[in-house]
Structure formats: structure tokens, C-alpha cells
Amino acid sequence: MKVENSVQWPAKAHSGVSGASVSASKSEKYDPSKGIAIGTGTSLMHKLPLPHELQKFEPAPKAHELKLNALSPEDTRAMLLTKGQQRDVTAIAYVDGKPAMMFGDSITSRNNFGYIALASNGNHSQAKQALKEQYGDRVEIIEFSPTSAPTNAEAFELFNQKSYREFVEREYHLERQNQSNAAKQQLEMHQKHLQRQNTPVDAVFTMNGVIVASLGADNSTDLHRGNLLMTLDEMGLSSDVAKALYDDTVGKKLSTKELGLIFEQNLPGQYNIEFPHYEASITREQITNQARSQYAQKVEEYSNR
Length: 305
Fold this sequence. Notes:
By secondary structure, the chain is of the alpha+beta class. It folds into two domains: about 55-180, no CATH class; about 200-305, no CATH class. It is about 45% helix and about 15% strand. The strands form two sheets. The protein has a five-stranded antiparallel sheet, sandwiched between helices. Strands 2-5-4-3-6 form a five-stranded antiparallel sheet, sandwiched between helices. The longest helix has about 35 residues, at about 165-195. Residues about 1-50 have low confidence and may be disordered.
């Protein structure tokens, strides 16, 4: 079968050399552990001392809360300041005169009461009832009307003994730092991508004149999957050959000789190696685009049959 759009530079073709081992990964079965049954007993929660640390337990975030991460640091600060002036708190539960739970858009709880909040899954009535059952007359729950409730900022300071404004500023600076780190990482990834794409290609492996693999100067192999699978099918060869090539090349640094040994082991005598002239300076991106063009032409030929 004649293919007109072969690798586009003058090159000397070499047949493969013999010898290479093919490794196959083995999947291991995962045997999940079994739970341990816990017997029933008498609750001792009412005898435990009051906790001093805070922990917030709340149901799945609402849509507007999910949008927080998409906001700029300035918008985040403005939103938190606005939120602080709102009155979303509907009740505060005290145990021994100290705040234990706060009810509003979510349930805020001190650590030792967190299991109650979790079990209630955000259900205020259920959490309040469970708190009363566990701590009896040690519990006092103050309910608020929309006009008598403290602001969210006041409620925050009540529970955390910290300035709400300082909390907002800390979140603002944290968001700015996260934004800066994300931009830096994105730039580094883009630079690495450009560096990889612009890496010169040392060797190109073809079958029936079609590019099936290439090796960059960084010793990383690119298998051009579409061309490889289609060519294997045309030659009546199993696609398992492609799997073997992936197993032996992906994530590995190889020399041209080592990659040739792998091809010879799996496709003896059925491939060519072409070496671009050093003055041509063919890059990985150019080879990839050429391989994609060959694949597109093959697909069009098949569709026109």
C-alpha cells in the first residue's frame, strides 16, 4: 500500500535491531476490610467536660457558596463583609452557660458536639433534640426572630472570640496568595508545555510510511496512537502490540537504540527509523501535527470507500 504523505524530510532509513523485553503490569485484587460491630451501652456524654475548641459542621455547600472560589479576592472580601452584616442566626444553644451550637444557614458547633451536628445532617430540630437528650437541663437554647438575632459578624465573634474583620482580612490575603500561586503554577505548566513541544526530534519511527512513534532529544517517546492502531489493523496485527509498546515506553527515558530494540521485539522488520537532519530542527509539535494530518487523511480515505 502506497502512502503519499510520509515524513517530510530527506532521511536515511534503517531497519530495526533485535532484542528487548516486554513488561506487562499485573492488576492486584483489592480485598476491602470489614467493619467492626459496636455493642450498645449507656451514654456518658453528659459527664464529659465542655470542649474549648471550635469546629464547624455543615451540610453540602449551596450554589452561592460554591461560587466563592470563582470570585476575586476583592469580591470575596466584599461578600464576606456583606454577609457579616446579615442576620442569619436563628438560635444559639448553650451548655453550662457557654455557647455550644449556633444555628443559621448551617450548624456551627464546638468539637465535642460535632457528632450531633453530623448526625443531624443540617436538621436544626433534630440537632437541638439530640443535644437536650444528651445534656439534659444543662442545655439552654435561645431562639431569635429575624429582627432580634445578632449579625453574623457578632455571632462569629461570640463563638470564636476573634474579630470578624480580622477574619475577613485574613481570608482576603489568603485568597490573594492562592491566586498568585495558581497563576505561577499555570505559567510554569505553560512554559513546560512549550519546552516539551519545542523539543527537537531525534528519531521518527514509521510503518507503511506513516509516523507511529517519535523520540525527542529529551529521550521521551511519543506514540501516535491513531496512526499506530490504524496501521496495525491494516497489516493484520493485534492491537496488543500497541499495549506492549505503551508498557515499555510511557514514562521512561529511552535512547534511540533502546526504542529500536523495543520496536524490533514487538514488530520485527516491519518499521523504519528516520533521522531528521540536524539543520532541519524538526520539533515534537511539528511531528505531532504531521502525524495527526496523516491520520485525518487515512480516516477520510476510509470514509470515501
